[in-house]
Amino acid sequence: MFEHVYKQNDELAKVIKHYSKKDGIYQTAIPSLFFINESHITEPLHVVYKPSFCVIVQGEKEVLLAQERFKYGPADYLVSSVDLPVTGQVIKASSHACSIFSSQT
Fold first, then answer.
1. What is the DSSP letter of 82?
2. Given CA atoms 81, 54, 75, 86 in this order, what sign does their dihedral have?
3. Where in this chain does the record put each Transcription regulator HTH AraC N-terminal domain (predicted)?
4. Which CATH code for domain 2-104?
């Protein structure tokens, strides 16, 4: 079963890379859907996650909420139903395996 999930995840990564060739945030034709592409490890960033559904397609991200750490990797996801003040950081990324996130608010 996991092999099937990883194959679909790789296909999704190819589609996202087609639309997000460089680092940055890319809005799609769907109003609340965007892609984030990071090819390097980032510094911790303090943000407020709005209610959303976020899928980690490649790389790894760590999120600190209060005193708890959450680590997300390929095929993991985060669902937020309320505004969440967090500190987030891309902790695994490279030019060959960018950290790619797909999020819908």
1. S
2. negative
3. 29-96
4. 2.60.120.10
